[in-house]
Amino acid sequence: MRPSRSSVADPPSSVAALLAWADAPLATAEVVEIMGAPEAQLRSELARCASAIPAGAEFYWVGKD
User: Fold this and answer.
1) How far apart (Å, rounded) are the C-alpha atoms in residues 27 and 53?
2) Which of 63, 58, 62, 64 is nearest to 29 (CA)?
3) Number of structural domains, the chain?
4) pLDDT tens, 5-58?
5) φ and ψ of 34, to 5 deg
6) Domain holding 52: CATH number?
7) Which one-letter DSSP state was computed for residue 36?
8) Which pLDDT score is estimated for 27?
9) Which helix (H) or strand (E) holds 7?
């Protein structure tokens, strides 16, 4: 189970930092919940710093190396 925003003392400083911390790809909804920012803003950041893994109509995300 991934930590939710309520169980993370301080959200990561960036999506890239979050994905570097994660030991598995994260769903868009997980990124939104943990970061606590608007989905549109985070999708823009994800598009710049992550690689998408399609999963139906949604994506899982991993950091770019």
Assistant:
1) 9
2) 58
3) 1
4) 455 567 789 999 999 999 999 999 999 999 999 999 999 999 999 999 999 999
5) -70, -45
6) 1.10.10.10
7) T
8) 97
9) none
